[in-house]
């Protein structure tokens, strides 16, 4: 029998969460199309599941060119955007062949485009409005944009849009509004599509509406997978459903007398006779090693807690609240019927993105249930 650990991906939850984003935009009255962000193998959920679950999206956005090609092979026919753009001239032939759009964030990319002799490619020129990762600085943006427009006139680019990325839409709207003001000031009067809003910005009332014009794209990511983009606010309060359930089973139980220590480093010591269970899940599966004692876990339908240090292949749980638990009893580490992935992340001083995208390949995936077909 195989090791009893499984990640179940819920296609209906993916579709539901996308619909929540659509509803949020409609409530604001914002005219925007949606790029569903499926980078990092759809945040660990799998591209195949994402292409099916996000069938109602207007486009997909990701990083890896091979993942973009895979989406085309899976039947996706709507726009696909490379969020970091391309890295070498040969990539441009792939973009043309598969009809993939690109972000342009550097002069080096402009140079490669200028030397490209193939068919036209759609592009968004990135502004660094304060994130300070990728993009042209405000005082150089218009020159870069004019160069992109010249490439469009030469038939190298088919479309030229404008883009930026918010650094603190999850926790500081003042900073976000300052970045938005910078973007609007720098791009004032420039034609083309606009994209500025990620998950937190999309779900923050009014931000998408603050972008003028009707040719706007938004880029929701983590919220589509049923996790909160905000600090200290859970996904349930946003009407989101968990799209992944990480489950396992108890593989051992025993009673430890008071004063005994558990696991590596003896990080937890019992203060009474305690019944402890061992779960087939560890940091080599992607469960966070730095999860603290008290991190919520559900065993046999009852919430209990992690105790001691997470090992590579196993973790320990307190079975005192679950007297009926036995070897083989079901365990939910996060997701449907268990704690939220946000709760586990908060107990581990990290974010849900880290946990979902960090789930390792040795954890088998199951996709449930079938969803509707892909929009052509």
Describe this protein with a few key phrases.
376 residues, 18 strands, 8-stranded parallel β-barrel, 11 helices, alpha/beta, 6-stranded antiparallel beta barrel
How would you characterize the overall build of this protein?
The chain is of the alpha/beta class and 376 residues long. It is built from eleven helices and 18 strands. It has helices at 11-28, 39-43, 47-53, 65-73, 89-98, 107-114, 138-153, 173-187, 199-203, 341-347, 352-357, and strands at 6-10, 32-37, 59-62, 80-82, 101-104, 121-126, 157-163, 194-195, 216-218, 244-256, 261-262, 268-269, 274-279, 296-299, 302-307, 315-318, 330-334, 365-368. The strands form three sheets. The chain has an eight-stranded parallel β-barrel, surrounded by five helices. A six-stranded antiparallel beta barrel has the order 10-13-16-15-14-17. The chain has a two-stranded antiparallel sheet with strand order 11-12. Helix 4 packs parallel to helix 5, helix 6 (107-114) runs parallel beside helix 7 and helix 7 crosses helix 8. The longest helix has 18 residues, at 11-28. Mean pLDDT is 94; it is low at 371-376.
